[in-house]
Specification:
- With 465 residues, the chain is of the alpha/beta class.
- The protein has helices spanning 50-57, 67-73, 85-91, 112-124, 138-149, 160-165, 167-175, 189-197, 205-217, 231-236, 239-250, 266-280, 300-303, 346-353, 364-378, 384-403, 421-428, 439-452, 456-463; strands at residues 4-5, 15-17, 31-32, 37-38, 62-64, 81-83, 96-101, 129-134, 153-159, 179-183, 222-224, 257-261, 289-295, 305-310, 319-324, 357-362, 408-413.
- Strands 1-6-7-17-12-13-16 form a seven-stranded mixed beta sheet, with helices on both faces.
- The longest helix is centred in the last third of the chain and has 20 residues, at 384-403.
- The structure holds pyridoxal-5'-phosphate (PLP).
- Pyridoxal-5'-phosphate binds at residues 109, 111, 135, 138-139, 228, 261-267, 338-339, 383, 385-386, 414-415.
């Protein structure tokens, strides 16, 4: 039995897969709060590279990956697909468990799959500097790496709680030449206003996005880059699923379940979209279940409300059609920093709303318990984010043991945990609280939004009903 299924460098996909033409219904448009109607894409050109905006709206199913981008991706891609032989033995399960290991990239996660493409298109359009936000540092380090590959500058606003707790990722970003500020920072008007109210403000991803956007629009030759949520970002991640299709063919397997964790939805979408395409185009040889996991501390898919909400706290972004906990959400300080965003990708939310996705939420104690089981069986120390999926996979494999089903389960191990040792230490010392986000806080936050934007129900009726 193959333990590791590898592809030749030249098998790196030549096209990304774009799900837009294959969604069960048209994606509701982003709304411009100033006109209360769909946003004019021209307005976003100040912030995003033109080619990325073109991809965002494109209805072409396959979009060519530029050779210069493939050349950088080849540093670590195609990534290996592993059969979790030891984990299966440890659990005594008849299930076949496969994981796509994205932790082999230079920054240690799936994030550079899009960072490289975004830096490339911006460089081609003459942009000199990119601004962005980061939670625990995965996305910030991916963009720092990618900009360094194309000789560009990078400014990262890092959620203050992580900036102080997790200095290692900050050093990594510095090593690739990026400047990194704790958010809220004294670099922007929005950051200064928050610091004047609370000099110890812990920050949030929504606040860091607002600061990165403000920095972008107040400086020349500067654009902004987002690590998840938008269509083009998720599309750049499909190299994962496309490679998996080839790798599984080599061992004559096809998944019954494709699972991944969701912060904004990019790693999971990158894995499952190509399988979704196989299902809707009737190429899949069997029914496939798509399972998305998240923390109980940030239960966007399992407890959030499907509506229009801002993508950031200062309300600078258009309103996006998504499940949301409210854009003023300040997450409990769980260690899966990448999963603490208040919303999710509109494409993922549409599919969730239409019943294509099965969501599961787990508390961080049960998640770290699964992570340690995995590390002791497979050797790799998983990041806290994919460990949410590992919790699901172990539970499902144990269910298969009860029923005797030989289900094929595929998930993405979208990041390693070498920068999260402090979190593991807290787990071993029994200091990790499980954290559950209260449901009435979600309702209150959405109520505040509806008070502010009294026309919101009309827009919902028009586009979400
Ligand atoms: C390792 C890892 N996994 C998952 C995520 C969640 O983001 P997304 O849902 O966009 O993949 C992050 C975000 O930073 C991450 O670093």
């Amino acid at each position: 039995m193959s333990r590791k299924i590898v592809l030749d460098e030249n098998s790196l996909p030549k096209n990304w897969y774009n799900i837009l033409p294959d969604l069960p219904r048209p994606l509701p448009p982003p709304i411009d709060p100033s006109t209360k109607g769909p946003i004019d894409p021209k307005k976003l050109e100040r912030v995003f590279a033109k080619e990325l905006l073109r991809q965002e709206l494109s209805s072409e199913r396959w979009i060519p990956i530029p050779e210069e981008v493939r050349d950088v991706l080849r540093l670590w891609r195609p990534t290996p697909l592993y059969r979790a032989v030891n984990l299966e033995k440890m659990l005594k399960t008849p299930a076949h468990i496969y994981y796509k290991f994205e932790g082999v990239s230079p920054p240690g996660s799936h994030k550079p799959n899009t960072a490289v493409a975004q830096a490339y298109y911006n460089m081609k359009e003459g942009v000199e500097r990119l601004t962005t936000e980061t939670g625990a540092g995965q996305w910030g380090s991916a963009l720092s790496f990618a900009t360094s590959m194309f000789g560009m500058k990078c400014t990262v606003y890092m959620v203050r709680a992580s900036y102080t707790q997790k200095p290692a990722r900050r050093m990594l970003m510095h090593s690739w030449g990026a400047e990194v500020y704790p958010s809220p920072s004294d670099k922007t008007n929005f950051g200064r206003s928050l610091l004047s109210q609370n000099p110890e403000h812990p920050g949030s991803l929504g606040i860091a996005i607002s600061e990165a956007l403000e920095d972008c629009v107040t400086h020349d030759n500067t654009k902004y880059s987002l690590g998840s949520v938008l269509n083009h970002v998720l599309m750049h991640q499909t190299v994962q699923g496309l490679e998996c299709l080839e790798q599984l063919k080599q061992v004559d397997e096809y998944p019954d379940i494709v699972a991944g964790c969701v912060g904004g939805g990019s790693s999971f979408s990158g894995l499952f979209w190509p399988f979704y395409y196989e299902v809707v185009s009737k190429k899949a040889p069997k029914k496939v279940k798509f399972v998305a996991t998240e923390p109980t501390a940030c239960p966007t898919m399992t407890k959030g409300i499907y509506t229009y909400d801002f993508g950031d706290t200062a309300k600078m972004t258009p309103l996006l059609p998504m499940y949301t906990l409210g854009s003023d959400f300040i997450p409990p300080p769980i260690h899966a920093g990448g999963l603490r965003y208040h919303g999710d990708a509109p494409t993922l939310c549409l599919l969730l709303h239409e019943g294509w996705i099965e969501p599961h939420a787990y508390d961080q104690v049960s998640v770290f318990d699964a992570a340690v089981t995995f590390a002791r069986a497979e050797g790799f120390l998983p990041g806290p984010e994919p460990s949410h999926t590992i919790r699901y996979v172990i539970d499902e494999a144990l269910r298969c043991k009860q029923t005797g089903e030989e289900k094929v389960i595929l998930f993405n191990l979208c990041g390693h945990g070498a920068f999260d040792l402090h979190a593991y230490e807290e787990f071993f010392e029994g200091k990790l609280p499980p954290w559950y986000y209260p449901e009435d806080e979600i309702k209150k936050s959405i109520e505040r939004l509806r008070q502010e934007l009294q026309w919101l129900p009309e827009v919902e009726k028009q586009f979400l009903a």
